[in-house]
Each structure stands twice: as structure tokens, then as C-alpha cells.
Amino acid sequence: MKKQILILALFFVVALVKGQDSKNFIDQNYIEVTGIAYKEVVPDEIYLTVQINEKDNKGKESLEKLERDMLAKLKSLGIDTKQDVMLNDLTSNFKFYFLKRTDIFASKEYTVKVNKAGLAGKVISGLSDIGISNVGLDRVEYSKEEELKMEVKRMAILNAKEKANLLVGALDQQVGKALHIQEFDNPRVYRPQVMEMKVRGASSLDAQAQPEFDFDKIRVDASIQVKFAID
User: Fold this and answer.
1) Residue 214, number of CB atoms within 10 A of its CB
2) How confident is the model at residue 97 (pLDDT cuts 50, 70, 90)?
3) What's the distance, CA 112 to chain centroid?
4) Which of 7, 45, 215, 217 is the least buried, fewest Cβ under 10 Å from its Cβ?
């Protein structure tokens, strides 16, 4: 029994010594800075919505014919219609528009994915040429978004270290190791709104001009708080 008490006492002594040797960072001289960083990239996934319906040509062409023409045009533009053309709603086969008691026109809606703004412009112009004008921008994305977020976080930490070196260096002291790193609820991703698609190149003076489309860049922001020891 005495032996067990002695071992327990020695354990607490060792723990107390170790606790005294390693100071809590609050008890050390330190500097706290917040590093911030951002990066903008051009969207490389552009999603267009295309609606085809028989009422556009008053039933002169069937929905199946319009669909075949659309897919043929998209293929001619180099789009993989099996991978990058998706039917939005399986029930869209059964969407109907009642214009008169005897007139029923069917409709389908697709999403078409392209990787460049220029190609988006060609899709819109090309479909318009075959009588499909109900085309709009759904959203834009960046395919390597997760890698981009990690890169911006790293940039934010480096920014924090740069700030700390600048401030501490003014006092002829040096920045030591990082004592604490706090990541806020970020990175934050700012995507262009659908109305931010810009059209240029087509004017009333040149009706044959090929329209070109631009998109605002996707921006990723990060902020990270770091506490550095001061040596």
C-alpha cells in the first residue's frame, strides 16, 4: 500500500515539473496577427439551360426533331453530348402548354456544360440559328475549387507571418514559432451572379458579328489568425 502511494506521489511530482517547464502560450511573449489572402480565377465550368418546345414554331416541328437538331448542333461545336448535356427533369417529357383547347405543345429543358465563355457564346448563337432561342446562364463553377481553397489558406498564413516579421522587426526582435493557429469560417467563395454575363461584339451596325461573352471571375477569400512567439 505504501509502495502504491509513493508511486502516485512521484507521478504528480513529475507532472508538476513538466507543467512548469512548458509555459502556456498566454504566459509567453507573443504577437497575434490575422493573415488575409484572396485569389481570382476564370470559371472553367459554365452551365447553360436550353429549353426546347414545340410552341416556338407553333407545332411545325416535333419535339423529337428539335431535340435531334439541338444535339447535332452541339456536337458540331465540339461538345460531348453524352457527358455534358443533361436532361434537367425526367418529367419534362410530360410538361405541356395549353394554348387552345385542341393545341398541346410538349417541352424539354436541358443543361449544357461548356468550359469557356467563348464556347458559351457559340452555343447560344448556334442554337439561335436553328430556331432555339430559349437559352440562359444557370451558374458558373471552377473545377479545382478545393485545391484553390487550400492555396489561399496557405497564402493567408504566409501573409500573417509577413505581418508579424514586419511589426516585431521594428522592435529589433525576432518572430519565433507559431503558438496557435485559428481558422475562421472560410475560405469564402464569391461566384458571379447569372446576370453578370456580358455580351460584346454584336452591334446594330454589324448584325453578322459573332457575340462574345465574358464572366466575372470567381474569387476565394481566406483569413487565418496566428499567434507567434517573440524571441
Assistant:
1) 16
2) low
3) 18
4) 7
Q: What is the pLDDT of residues 175-230, one digit of tens each?
A: 999 999 998 877 899 887 654 454 444 443 344 555 566 778 999 999 999 999 99
The contacts of residue 92 (CB under 8 Å, 6+ apart) are 107, 108, 109
The CA distance from 79 to 58, in Å, is 28
Helix then strand then coil, % of the chain, to nearest 5: 40, 35, 25
* Cα–Cα distance list, 41 to 17, 105, 186, 198, 220 (Å): 53, 42, 17, 17, 9
Q: What are phi and psi of 117, to 5 degrees?
A: -60, -40
Contacts (Cβ under 8 Å, ≥6 apart) of 93: 106, 108
Provide the grid cell at 38.
Answer: 484572396
Question: Is the Cα torsion angle 170, 173, 175, 179 positive or negative in sign?
Answer: negative
Strand boundaries in 115-211, DSSP class E? 135-141, 175-183, 188-190, 197-200
From the list 112, 113, 116, the residue with the least C-alpha distance to 214 is 116
Residue 212 forms beta bridges with which residues?
Answer: 200
The gap between the terminal CA atoms of the chain, to the nearest Å, is 48
Question: Which amino acid belongs to residue 42?
Answer: V
How many beta carbons lie within 10 A of that of residue 210, not counting itself?
Answer: 11
What is residue 154's DSSP assignment? H
pLDDT of residue 25: 56
Residue 77, pLDDT > 90, answer yes
Matching residue, cell 475560405 = 187
Q: What is the dihedral of CA 71, 114, 139, 219, to 10 degrees?
A: 180
